[in-house]
Amino acid sequence: MKAIRRFTVRPVLPEPLRPLSDLARNLRWSWHAETRDLFQSVDPERWAASGGDPVRLLGSVRPARLAELAEDRRFLRRLTAVADDLNDYVSGDRWYQTQTTELPAAVAYFSPEFGITAALPQYSGGLGILAGDHLKAASDLGVPLIGVGLLYRHGYFRQTLSRDGWQQEHYPVLDPHELPVAPLREADGTPADICLALPGGKQLRARIWLAQVGRVPLLMLDSDVEENDLGERGVTDRLYGGGSEHRLLQEMLLGIGGVRAVRTYCRLTGHPEPEVFHTNEGHAGFLGLERIAELCSEGLDFDSALEAVRAGTVFTTHTPVPAGIDRFDRELVARHFGPDAELPRIDVGRVLQLGMETYPGGEPNLFNMAVMGLRLAQRANGVSLLHGKVSREMFSGLWPGFDPEEVPITSVTNGVHAPTWVAPEVFRLGARQIGAQRTEDAMTVGGSERWDAVADIPDQDIWELRRNLREQLVTEVRERLRASWRQRGAVTAELGWIDGVLDPDVLTIGFARRVPSYKRLTLMLRDRDRLMDLLLHAERPIQIVVAGKAHPADDGGKRLVQELVRFSDDPRVRHRLVFLPDYGMAMAQKLYPGCDIWLNNPLRPLEACGTSGMKAALNGCLNLSVLDGWWDEWFQPDFGWAIPTADGVGTDPDRRDDIEAAALYDLLEQRVTPRFYERGQEGLPDRWIEMVRQTLTLLGPKVLAGRMVREYVERLYAPAAHAHRTTDPDSAREIAEWKARLRAAWHGVTVDHVETTAATATAELGTTLGLRVRVALGDLGPDDVEVQAVSGRVDEEDRITDGTAVPLKPAGGPDPEGRWVYEGPLSLDRTGPYGYTVRVLPAHRLLASSAEPGLVALPSEEVVEAAGVLMR
């Protein structure tokens, strides 16, 4: 018989064990080994059965066992120590509290997904894991962050395989009462919720759930509440599911509802109000509209409110391709805003202006969430140096007249949260060397350029560690493979071969990630004979562990999964190549440490960052990757290999895959496998061990989420907080009125004449030219603009490729025609083809960059020809 209703019966903990409940409810246990060890000792079998989830463990442990522990003095001493440690962690000063510069009182961090722990499955891939690591690192550093997301009742999806290897999706229902979250409550004990207005007088209500991530509260909005109709209850049903309107409602709830949830949380707890709002990808972009509406209700006009909101907003883009951005039909967006729906006091036309692709090459009928995110944020960044460059080019249409390198999008390279991803065995090896506290500080706060203590670890210890981790992975793979084959319909009698799958002494390669086509899951299958030779080599074999999910709507990705699964089912190679379904955090935490090589072969430059290789590197795994994302930035031959790419213009995609697959096989045959199997005088692979050592010494400090969050604080949050404080209502009106005047008058700004005077007739290195420029400013004055000379080397088409901008100064007042003369020196500081130009840019003390308004005046063709702009 099936139950008509389900609910969770919680155990009543004996008084001495009450701290266990607090420990279970703070997700710090997910990266704190002592807390996990404590819970495991409660009941090792039930701990394993719960998947390492303390909330599930405490819900299943026998009352007799609890009574026994309540009398166990050794256990109670451990419990007190761990509880005291958590209290010190959440209440004591950390890195942020020791900074002398003025930092934000609080930062709100919005993301559509968060990967904190497998026990809270609210993530699909890299974006969510990155967001989870951002929260954890902020907690470790003491950054006063408030996370904001949605609580999906089905999460993403669980993946299994059919008998013929086709991906199948399952959506188990998640009961929040069985998750490590608690409802946020009003002072009278009723659940706190927020409400959005929908077209036709309907409402969308959402409950606020709180997950405590160390020091950081994570607010999660859940629309599955009784007050909603069936359709509205399903808004937060699953991550990245449904059609356009479903996605739009999710993103309105995340952005607009998220701001309301933050206000509610701060009101109820006394937490400082955020001075900075960080939008992690465009999904949460509507948060800026809600904040504009708040300021308008306090008396500001729309344009002034927009400037005030922009000042304190940071936008991070994660996609290098336009197809990865959410775009909605303008009529759909218009229907959900205005007098009959949400934000009724804001003109729908102003809402649409923020997201429309009104630039060359854009589709003017589409509302682009990333475009809105950029227009609502004064500071924006990509997630690696290369991705920053790609983003500047991709969004350059928003800043017409500027070269892509001047587009105001910077980059902060992603990092990963070491305590989450480093195997306990690796941590213990570091602790043996420098002590547990110093090891923990090195992995969380970071700050050092090198981990030199790694040099003192004996080769034998490093090699034993690597083999131990590989052996653990072999055991894990066999268990998961056996479970997968049973799900595919196999019986135990058919599965004896699984006991021989993988070998703890064979070079092990890992490949695990989402399965969009650009990540090229099946590139390794390009030449199956060569791959088979590598797998089955008599002296230097390799073995490969593969995992990954295709999006439920991506049949092309599912075909790639099926192609790889069918190859791995071949009895000739199935002991050497395995595909593990249902890739997630729990599997990843075993996979990264156990691999010797982490393989990454995307189409360059389509990998924004690619943090999986960072997690592997922190465990002493070497990277074998295309020079894309973070690997393009930090690759050195000392700690890995770069797969050559054929990403020139016009390369046929099939031919490109052939070329790059051949390069991959060559590297494995000629350089990677010989180094792994080659033995020195002590019987150890000395050169391989040295590469592991260099990976830990040089890459380790770079790839930390602690380093990443410190960069966000120093380079983005602190300036945004300063701008937020500076842009009070009067200043907001000032800058809004100035921009309106600027746009209205800019057509009158021209460069009319450029001339140079030289001390000598030849252009020699070290020569200084005198530059004299006449400009018309129309209705603007010298205080509204900056006139610059831009000079540097030029390419074959006379484009300045590495320009340096120098401001020129006005020489006296306007002439009778209203023209202004600007003068300044031009130093010829480089040899070779050299050129200069001049330009007029807007200037105001409240601008974050002169490119911000997207306006520039350049010399006309006639002026250029008269100026003689090139010297060779």
TrEMBL record:
It comes from the Bacteria. It catalyses: [(1->4)-alpha-D-glucosyl](n) + phosphate = [(1->4)-alpha-D-glucosyl](n-1) + alpha-D-glucose 1-phosphate. Residues 13-120 form the DUF3417 domain. SUPFAM superfamilies: UDP-Glycosyltransferase/glycogen phosphorylase (SSF53756). InterPro entries: Agluc_phsphrylas, Glyco_trans_35, Glycogen/Maltodextrin_Phosph, Glycogen_phosphorylase_DUF3417, Pyridoxal_P_attach_site. It holds the Pfam family Phosphorylase. Its cofactor is pyridoxal 5'-phosphate. The keyword Metal-binding does not apply. Its EC number is 2.4.1.1. Phosphorylase is an important allosteric enzyme in carbohydrate metabolism. Enzymes from different sources differ in their regulatory mechanisms and in their natural substrates. However, all known phosphorylases share catalytic and structural properties. Belongs to the glycogen phosphorylase family. This is glycogen phosphorylase. It comes from Streptomyces cellulosae.
